[in-house]
Amino acid sequence: MTNRQIVLDRLPQGDRLAPDHFALNIAERPTAGEGEVLLKSRYISLDAANRAWMQGATYRSALNSGQVMAGGGLSEVVTSNVPHLQSGDLVFADAGWQEYAVLPGKHLSRLPDLKPETHLLSVYGIAGLTAYFGLLECGQPKAGETVVVSAAAGSVGSIVGQIAKIKGCRVVGIAGGDEKGRWLTEELGFDAAVDYKSPDFKRQLRAAVPDGIDVYFDNTGGDVFEACLFAMKNFGRIACCGALSQYDGAPPPHGPRGIPGLIVTKRLNLRGFVVMDFDDKREQALADLQAWVADGRLKVQEDIIDGLENLPGALIGLLAGENRGKRMVRV
Staple 151 to which of 27, 147, 219, 266, CB 3.0 to 4.6 Å? Predict the structure, then answer.
């Protein structure tokens, strides 16, 4: 009747995230009350946003030292005190980094019976929906246009690039290292890949997009964002999804330079978003994603690590770019 938890023992203060920022805690397993549901975690999602939440309030409350580390995942209903959920149902829940959690049932919905169930966290979960809406609603790509995506080998970026190809675009992925670049072009069908770790990154980018960028999907911010900003075509669109380069460690010494004049002269459209903005279009998005996976046009890459105790190291590795595709921990 115990509940293992990963607690955020202390907040990083300008330093990089490290294992000693976390602690393993053994608590009593909670009990569901009226209108509540007891959940058992199966898989916990790892995302760069986990680190961003440690910096202060975003679209959710800021994290504090001593609390269970926040995070969403795929959970199984153990006990339900609401009529629309039964024992054994699967839900996506913001249950935190722990084995068991009790949450209000009114905020939970039963997930469809899809196999493999891990796809409910990757391509049919927040990663896939973020890629779909960020590209199609914010980027609005048209066939024949050039789409560039940063963190292209990650959970969102790898899907963004493939959707852009499905829509008839020329796609350039920005990722770290030759191995990831080959994976993007040889396995996922990207037209080109650029190594942001290379000393001649900007030259590589210019060579990959000689006529400029129509749509840029930004997962990183920082120097990569700046380089792509200056390569945008007139009337280009930028979907601002994340700022991975600025989440971990000391803040950058400066922001992208020359932005106001550049946005005006090139008539650029920059749009920030979170996936919840498009909840009313979720059903159509899932139908499209399922169809593309079924016919082989959209390949799903998942990076699964075993063990609740490995969550801190898994997040640290994700921030360092270890993963290809969606990283999650099997509890």
Answer: 219
Q: Are 269 and 246 in contact (CB under 8 A)?
A: no
- The pLDDT tens digits for 210-247 are 999 999 999 998 889 999 999 999 999 999 998 765 65
User: Across-strand partners of 174?
Assistant: 150, 194
In a domain, 187, yes or no: yes
pLDDT digits (tens, 9 = 90+) for 43-58: 999 998 899 889 877 7
Please measure the distance between the N-terminal and C-terminal CA atoms of the chain and give it in whole angstroms.
Answer: 16
In which domain, by residue range, is 174 found?
Answer: 127-276
* Phi, then psi, of 226 in degrees rounded to 5: -60, -45
Same-domain pairing of 39 and 100: yes
Do 103 and 196 share a domain, yes or no? no
Same domain, 261 and 182: yes
Count of C-beta atoms within a 10 Å radius of residue 183:
21
Number of domains in the chain: 2
CB 41 within 8 A of CB 95: yes
CATH number at residue 201: 3.40.50.720
